[in-house]
Structure formats: structure tokens, C-alpha cells
Specification:
The complex is a heterodimer of chains A (about 350) and B (about 475). With about 350 residues, chain A is α/β, with parallel strands linked by helices. In chain A, about 40% of the residues lie in helices and about 15% in strands. The chains are: A alpha/beta (about 350), B alpha/beta (about 475). The interface of A and B includes residues 306, 313, 314, 320 and 340 of A.
């Protein structure tokens, strides 16, 4: 096995924080090409000059006979602004293209879900109370940080299979762009979905959308597309001021784990986004019945999981929206970046006041 | 009345009300069938529908069987292609016709509503029926404008809608359900409540009169089993329900299993918050309107009154004084403020809650100018309880009657915390003269409708519906259309 140089989250951070141009410089993100040209040394700075291979941003196990034992990363859950292991002590063996162990990730339990929901519930009012402008900047910051961690994320998606690199790059780019779309929606969707009401009487009456509360986003368990659906399910609910518990793919949990690090370094207040990697067989029944979960946004569920979710959800009148979208569909902004993806996760509040002296 | 100088008239006599019954005659048939595929069916197996003020049988209506439901759903299915393909402007014209015919037959509908349901004639005449007509008028205009209602999306009809409505506003709830469904190009099978079928059957006559295409609206009367058969019919594309949270949750499960959309407008335990800087007399009017309107049979009733501690005694004094002018009695009398409780079953439920509140230690205050009429009919005097604790049943469960829980708070934060301390979230009231406080409190209340310095206002242009366990989906306004389209 070839040497793989250990990378960790600091690689992405240092690149984007210290080496990025200052904001005052024009054309930060006109396209991706100039960015690459501007930082030709980025890769070299983390890889030994002697190594012919491109660096690996997600470390895998290396055999002891190589020059250096790699420092492998422990992929953890992201709960309430911290990175705990699963309380259950269980982990997932994530396999590379040849069936070898590529990394380990946490297998979240019911109790991890409960902790995440608790954290989300506590953080939600503060997040909803931020100005829409501020939420927009933070969503944009998530996009910036994900852009900065592109290489690590691509590796997390491909699990070292370079044949999949091109698709993975496309997926990360679409995810970044999706976040930018919703960064822009934060201070606009209320104007598109809300209005004043011309009632027949001396009243000033208007209807405004407000966030529903704690939204669980369940991504399809799809090894070939482990990031974009998760981001697409989270972003609309998040932009409206909901707090999120995201449940990512279990067959490839690494992108979810890396996304947690992106969130953590993006000014997202602790608890506003929580990310779990776990088995849907295990978690779906608890998600459907948990009374502090107010809405669910899920994609690519099996018929059994979808049924369990919808029918358990009737217990506390949860709002459940499931998406049945094929691979290409997740790339379609007309569908996935529409304000009608925000609308299921807001509650319309009608306010009346008499008008007169 | 004028009194000649020198004569004396006892004050009590001078202020007595003479009976003032509404005298518009309304004919009611001995029995009714369903309204399916544009025609009334012969009556089948029937059940009586009573006047709750007299306990007399008004008519016998048919208990819908599974076969009846099936025929109605098939009629709606058959009518769907033509109705949804009709240009919006033409669909709208049918709705305008219906609105006009309701206005023309308004008094008849109001009297019928009051006889079958027990609500005071002044409410059915001045609130229910005018808003029913307004609902059809408002939605008529949407039928040709749907493409402007959903930014960037193209709406299409959902299909055949199964609608189940409650007994507290029989005609109004029918309008809330039927008007947006038809405007959006859907067809309907609707079931009125067991105790209040007559006004909707009368509305079906209007559909027939105005030439609404056959099968576009079908009315099935019956009991719970009929409602269950409708909800579970595999031919439905959507369920819409207004009623209790318990039934709503069951229907949500049915819809979940069939994976069809559902909208729910369920119960509430809505807070009405009076701050010490509010206009107290206006607030008292709002409190009375909030809980004694329609005998308290209102899902959004302001049944929890939170009064700032400093004004508690004053509010209770003025509330008592105001309630002493409420007249309980013959719903058809134009001076009646509080009519008959809708059914024996509901009266029993309310009385059980009154007993529980007593036994849990709250203090009962029942007051009106008349007391309850003796003899036949189901009556409950307007009542409020002081000394109610957060854990009392009365502070947590929906009574659906003229019963108010009065509680106190010290700070706005406490008021908000306690107001939101319920699984429901339908409506809320705020009374203060401070503008900034109104907006701050109104945005933090978990409720779909927040009335500020007013209460219990309804309008077809203003969306209505709940947060949390009060349901989902809105009725009225542009947001209300969302429930009846696919995007």
C-alpha cells in the first residue's frame, strides 16, 4: 500500500483562512479555476516533496512498513457544538474501493439522537432570533468553508477511489452552490411566502412565515451521493431559522462527519446543526415518535422507512416531507433551491391588530 | 319606552327584554338523503337531528354506508377531469353564483343553522352566514389567478378531496373547505357532523340551483363510521379535517398509510394575555368574545386568560360585571348572547370538566343576566374559574364550552413561557397599549393566529390554522390555497 499522508481539518482551514485573499480583493469566487491557479502550492505544502501521489486528506490506515505511520482521523458525531463519539461506543467500518478498511466512523444510537434533539431544541430560539441578514451570512460562511475543504470532502466522498473523483468534485461544487442559494433566501423567503391580508374591516392584518422548530433531515443512504442530498435537505430548513439534526449516509459516513467540521468552523452556533451517522433501521422509529422533533425532511427513504416515519409522526402532528428524487434530480436548482422547499418547514402566523384612533 | 311624568315604572320592568324571536319560516323536510352526483338520493337508514334548545327532532337524515361513500367518491372522480379542465374564470363564475345565492338565502340559512346547532341567531346571521358568502366570493376570484399565487411554481389540482367538518360552525367550515377546493379545480366529498347536517344539505340545494356540474360537490351525512369510511376510501387524493386532535391524529395515520396529503385543523387551549398597560374594558370585551362566543364551541377560543398580577382583581371585577349582562336562552331570540350547547354528549363533557375543576381546587364563578332556562334543551351558564394552577386539567385540556381559566403572571417572559406551555398552538390574544411589546410578544407566541387588542376575528383573506398539535395547513388567504394544489 502506498504512503498516504495524513491530513486533517486544519489543512482545509489553514488554506482558506491564512492563504485566502482578503475580502477587499475583487473576484474571490468568479470561478473555480482562478482559485486553483492562485494557490498552486496548496497541495505541496501538505505533501512530502518526495511523494509522487497526490496527498490524501482523509487518512486511511497504512501498513507499518511504510516510511511513516499515518495519523488516521477519528470521524465523530457532531452534537450540540461538540464532536463526541457515540455514547454506545459503536463504530462503522468504512471500506475503500477494494473492500479494505478505509476509516472508522461512529454508529449513532437512540441516545445520541436524543442528545442532538435536546441541543437543537435549546439552540433553535436563538438561531431564529438572529437577524435574517446574519443567518444569511452564516449560511454563506458554511459555503465558504465547504469550498475551502473541497479536497478533503472529495476524498471523503470517493473513499480513495480516484475513478470517482470527477463526480465527487461535481457533488461538492453543487453542495457549495446550494448553500449559497439558501444563504440568499434567508432575508427573502418571508417576502415571497408572506403578505398582508386585505380583510373586510378596520384591521391591519398580515401573515408571516416562522420557523417550525427542530427539523430532522434524513439523507438517502447512498454511497454514490453522500453529501449533496444531505446539504439540500438541511439548507432550506436551516435558512428559515430551524435547528437541524441531520442523519447522513451510513454506508459512507465520512462526508457527514466532515460536514460537521465545516459547520463547526462556520459561525453556526452550537446545537443549531447536529450531524449523526447511523442506521436508519435503528433511528427512524425514534425519529418518528420523538415529540420534540417538529418536522422531518427526508430523501430517498425505503417504503418501510417512509411509512414508519409518516405514521409515527401523526403522534405529535409532525410535519413530514419526503423527497423521491433520482441522482440527477438533486443537482437541479429549479427544484431543490425553490422557496417551496422552505415552505414545509415554516408555520404561517397571521397577526391582527385593530386600526383606528 | 317613554314614561309620562308623574308615573312610576319599576326599573326592573323598564329594562326587561321582551322575547324577540326570529320569525323567518324555514321549511325542513321530514327526512333527507345524501347529495350525490348532482341529485338528492332517497333517504336510507336514518338518524334524527335535534334542535338542542328544545330537544325536538328537526328531521331524519341518512346514515351514510360504505356503499354511499363509494358512490359519492366515484361521482367526484367522474366529475374531476371536466371540472379541473374548465378555465379558471369559468370555475370562478360558479363560485360567484354560489356566493350570491347564499347572500340571497342568508336569513333562511342562519335560522336553519341556529335551529340545528343551537348558536344564537345574532351570530349565525351576522357572523357565520356572511362569512360563508364572503368565502365563496373571495375564492371565486382565485380560480383564474392560481398561476400568480405560487412564486415560480405551477399549481395543478390535487384531485378528489375527502372533507370532514365539525358541528361548531357547520356551514362556515363547509365553506372553508369547499370554496378553496373548487377554486383550485378539485372535486369534493364532504361529510357534515352527526349533529348538524341540515345547513350543508341546504347548501347542496344551492349547488343544484346554480347548476354546479354534477359530482363536483357531494354531501354524505352520517356518523363516525361514515366519516371513517370516507377517510379510508382508496379513491381519495387528499383528506381535509377540522375537529378534535384525537380524531385528527387517527386520520393523519390513515393518510400516512395511504401516502396522501392531509390538512388538519384541530383543537386548542389558546392563551389570552392581558398586560397591566392594556385597555382593560376593551380587553374584557375581547375576553368575553374569546370564550363565550358560540358557547365556547370554538377551536381557537381564548380559554386560558393570563392576567398581569397587578390588575387581576380589577379584571375579575369587570369581567363579572360584564358577564352579568349576558343573556343565555332561546338561540332564535335576537337578544340572546349564549345559546344552547350543541348536544347532550357535549354538555356532559363540559359538566365533567366543571366538576374536575371544582375538585382540583379552582373557584367557580358562573354569571349571566338570565341564568339558564329551565326545562328542555342543553344549557351551560358562562363560567370562569379563578385560582387555576398550571397543572389543573382546566389549564391543559380543551373543554369546548363556555368555561374560562383565569391565571396570573408577573413578567412578559413568564406570560410567554406559560402561554406556550401547551402542545397546542392555534390562536393567542395580547392586550397592551405598548406597540413594541405587542410585536415582541406576538412573534414569540407559538400560535397560527395572534389577535392583538382584538379577538376571534375571521376573514377569508386572513389565513387560519395551527402550530404544533393544533394541526397543519392554513385555511383562507393565498396560503390556504396551498392545501388544494400540487406544485
Amino acid at each position: 500500500m502506498k504512503l498516504r499522508v495524513a491530513g486533517n481539518s486544519r489543512v482545509g482551514c489553514s488554506r482558506s483562512v491564512s492563504a485566502r485573499p482578503k475580502y477587499s480583493q475583487p473576484a474571490c469566487h468568479p470561478s473555480r479555476e482562478p482559485l486553483k491557479q492562485r494557490f498552486p502550492a496548496t497541495r505541496r505544502c501538505t505533501a512530502p516533496r518526495s511523494a509522487p501521489d497526490p496527498p490524501r486528506f482523509v487518512a486511511a490506515y497504512t501498513d507499518g512498513m511504510s516510511e511513516r505511520i499515518s495519523v488516521t482521523k477519528t470521524h465523530k458525531l457532531y452534537i450540540n457544538g461538540a464532536f463526541p463519539r457515540s455514547e454506545s461506543g459503536r463504530s462503522i467500518d468504512v471500506q475503500g474501493p477494494k473492500g479494505e478498511t478505509f476509516a472508522h466512523a461512529c454508529l449513532a444510537s437512540r441516545k445520541d439522537l436524543r442528545e442532538a434533539v435536546k441541543g437543537a431544541g435549546a439552540a433553535q430560539p436563538g438561531w431564529a432570533g438572529r437577524t435574517a441578514y446574519n443567518r444569511g451570512q452564516i449560511l454563506y460562511r458554511i459555503a465558504e468553508m465547504l469550498e475551502g475543504k473541497r479536497l478533503e470532502m472529495v476524498e471523503a466522498i470517493t473513499l480513495g477511489d480516484d475513478k470517482k473523483k470527477k463526480n465527487a468534485e461535481r457533488e461538492v461544487e453543487a453542495s457549495v452552490d446550494r448553500l449559497v442559494r439558501f444563504a440568499g433566501w434567508t432575508d427573502k423567503y418571508t417576502q415571497v411566502l408572506g403578505n398582508s391580508n386585505p380583510v373586510a374591516g378596520p384591521f391591519y392584518t398580515f401573515t408571516i412565515p416562522e420557523p417550525t422548530g427542530v427539523v430532522v433531515c434524513v439523507a438517502p443512504d447512498d454511497r454514490a451521493l453522500p453529501l449533496l442530498p444531505l446539504v439540500s435537505l438541511i439548507a432550506p430548513a436551516l435558512c428559515a431559522g430551524n435547528a437541524i439534526v441531520g442523519v447522513g449516509s451510513v454506508t459512507n459516513p465520512l462526508p457527514t462527519s466532515v460536514l460537521g467540521e465545516v459547520m463547526h468552523t462556520s459561525d453556526v452556533p452550537g446545537g443549531v446543526v447536529n450531524l449523526l451517522t447511523g442506521s436508519l433501521d435503528e433511528l427512524v422509529p425514534w425519529i418518528s415518535e420523538h415529540r420534540a422533533i417538529e418536522a422531518v425532511h427526508a430523501g430517498g427513504l425505503s417504503e418501510e422507512h417512509a411509512m414508519a416515519l409518516r405514521s409515527g409522526a401523526s403522534e405529535n402532528v409532525k410535519r413530514v416531507r419526503t423527497r423521491d428524487i433520482d441522482h440527477e434530480g438533486w443537482f437541479d436548482d429549479e427544484t431543490c433551491a425553490s422557496p417551496w422547499w422552505i415552505e414545509p418547514f415554516v408555520e404561517m402566523k397571521t397577526i391582527w391588530h385593530p386600526s383606528g384612533v | 319606552m317613554t314614561t309620562a311624568p308623574g308615573t312610576t315604572t319599576p326599573a326592573a320592568t323598564a329594562w326587561d327584554y321582551a322575547p324577540a324571536p326570529e320569525r323567518v319560516p324555514v321549511t325542513i323536510a321530514d327526512s333527507y338523503g345524501h347529495f350525490i352526483d348532482g341529485a338528492f338520493t332517497p333517504a336510507g337508514k336514518t338518524m334524527p337531528t335535534l334542535n338542542p334548545a328544545t330537544e325536538e327532532t328537526l328531521s331524519d337524515v341518512t346514515v351514510g354506508s360504505e356503499a354511499d361513500v363509494d358512490r359519492a367518491v366515484q361521482a367526484a372522480r367522474k366529475a374531476l377531469p371536466a371540472w379541473s379542465a374548465l378555465p379558471g374564470a369559468e370555475r370562478g363564475k360558479y363560485l360567484y353564483r354560489i356566493a350570491r345565492r347564499i347572500q340571497e338565502r342568508a336569513r333562511e340559512l342562519a335560522v336553519l343553522e341556529t335551529m340545528d346547532g343551537g348558536k344564537p341567531i345574532k351570530e349565525s346571521r351576522d357572523v357565520d352566514v356572511p362569512i360563508v358568502a364572503h368565502h365563496f366570493f373571495y375564492h371565486a376570484g382565485w380560480a383564474d389567478k392560481l398561476k400568480y399565487a405560487f412564486a415560480g411554481a405551477t399549481p395543478s389540482p390535487v384531485g378528489v378531496c375527502g372533507q370532514i367538518i365539525p358541528w361548531n360552525f357547520p356551514l362556515l367550515m363547509a365553506a372553508w373547505k369547499i370554496a378553496p377546493a373548487l377554486a383550485c379545480g378539485n372535486t369534493v366529498v364532504i361529510k357534515p357532523a352527526e349533529t348538524t347536517p341540515l345547513s350543508l344539505l341546504r347548501l347542496a340545494e344551492i349547488f343544484e340551483e346554480v347548476g354546479l356540474p354534477k359530482g363536483v360537490v357531494n354531501v354524505i351525512t352520517g356518523d363516525r363510521d361514515t366519516g371513517g369510511a370516507l377517510a379510508q376510501h382508496p379513491g381519495l387524493d387528499k383528506i381535509a379535517f377540522t375537529g378534535s386532535t384525537a380524531v385528527g391524529k387517527k386520520l393523519a395515520k390513515v393518510a400516512a398509510e395511504r401516502n396522501i396529503p392531509i390538512t388538519l385543523e384541530l383543537g386548542g387551549k389558546s392563551p389570552n394575555i392581558v398586560f397591566e398597560d392594556g385597555a382593560i374594558d376593551q380587553a374584557i370585551e375581547g375576553v368575553v368574545r374569546g370564550i363565550y362566543f358560540n358557547q365556547g364551541h370554538v377551536c381557537c377560543a381564548g380559554s386560558r386568560l393570563f392576567v398581569q398580577e397587578s390588575i387581576h382583581d380589577e379584571v375579575v371585577r369587570r369581567l363579572t360585571h360584564r358577564m352579568k349582562s349576558l343573556r343565555v336562552g332561546d338561540p332564535l331570540d335576537k337578544n340572546t348572547d349564549v345559546g344552547a350547547i350543541n348536544s347532550r354528549e357535549q354538555l356532559d363533557r363540559i359538566e365533567a370538566y366543571l366538576g374536575t375543576a371544582d375538585s382540583e381546587g379552582a373557584q367557580r364563578h358562573a354569571c349571566s343576566s338570565t341564568g339558564t332556562p329551565g326545562g328542555k334543551g342543553y344549557w351551560c351558564e358562562p363560567t370562569f374559574f379563578t385560582g387555576v394552577q398550571e397543572a389543573h386539567t382546566l389549564a391543559r385540556e380543551e373543554v369546548f364550552g363556555p368555561v374560562l381559566a383565569v391565571m396570573t403572571f408577573r413578567t412578559p417572559e413568564e406570560a410567554l413561557m406559560r402561554a406556550n406551555n401547551t402542545p397546542y398552538g392555534l390562536s393567542a390574544g395580547v392586550w397592551t397599549d405598548k406597540g413594541a411589546k405587542i410585536f415582541s410578544v406576538a412573534t414569540k407566541l407559538k400560535a397560527g393566529v395572534v389577535w392583538c387588542n382584538t379577538f376571534n376575528n375571521f376573514d377569508p383573506a386572513a389565513p387560519f390554522g395551527g402550530y404544533r398539535e393544533s394541526g397543519f395547513g392554513r385555511e383562507g388567504g393565498v396560503q390556504g390555497l396551498r392545501a388544494y394544489v400540487k406544485l
